[in-house]
Amino acid sequence: MARESKQARAERARRIVRALAHAYPDAKIALRHRNAFELLIATILSAQCTDEKVNEVTRELFRRYPKPADLAHADPNELEAVIRSTGFYRQKAKSLLGTSRDLCERFGGRVPRSLEELTSLRGVARKTANVVLGEAFGVPALAVDTHMKRVNQRLGLTASDDPNAIERDLMALIPEPEWTGYTRRVIHHGRVCCGSRKPRCELCPVRKDCPWPADRKRAGDR
Ligand code: SF4
């Protein structure tokens, strides 16, 4: 593809935003949650794990520990046993305990509403904070997970591998009110169409604006 001007890329990004909104008007986050606390905990558990598995586990987890204070006082061994099937359960149990204790000790048992405060919680990385801001509090946020990374790289909207740099690249291209919806739709698109191994380019709603090499689009070989 010939070198693209900044303006051309911004226009292309807006066409992509519109096409995804048209193709997936009802895309929503797959992690089941009833409030910001549950979403925070579910998102921490979703690292290296499918959302389906997290949803199975959180049913029991939130039955036993419905509030931050309950989870903050959980027995570590019992907690590990409940979340074991999500993988990396020792580290995740530490994160859940640390986050819940921070919520109780520093925020009166409530989930804070700013990126700075959220990322100050033990076990909460920027992506998790952005998921909570966008989905629980309605603050426009771009949460860069593996789908956001792969799809936006293929779309030529970022050349970076670093989630923070990808977020910055997208902030410059996607209108702010669209950030949360764009995140939802790209993740959905990454699941149903632009998969890591065999993207279904022939069915893709943003095919015309995707520079991913045409021979790969035909072969679907990456
Ligand atoms: S055309 Fe193919 S590579 Fe590009 S976004 Fe669509 S599915 Fe992904």
Explain what you see.
This protein is an all-alpha fold. The chain folds into two domains: 6-24 and 143-219, Endonuclease Iii, domain 2; 36-136, Orthogonal Bundle (Endonuclease III, domain 1), CATH 1.10.340.30. Helices cover 59% and strands 0% of the residues. It has twelve helices and no strands. The mean pLDDT is 95. The structure holds iron/sulfur cluster (SF4). Residues 151, 154-155, 193-194, 199-201, 204, 206-207, 210, 212, 217 line the site of iron/sulfur cluster (SF4). Residues 151, 154-155, 193-194, 199-201, 204, 206-207, 210, 212, 217 line the site of iron/sulfur cluster.
Question: What's a concise summary of this model?
Answer:
This protein has 222 residues and is an all-alpha fold. The chain has 2 domains: 6-24 and 143-219, Helix-hairpin-Helix base-excision DNA repair enzymes (C-terminal) (Endonuclease Iii, domain 2, Orthogonal Bundle); 36-136, Endonuclease III, domain 1 (Orthogonal Bundle). It contains 12 helices and no strands.
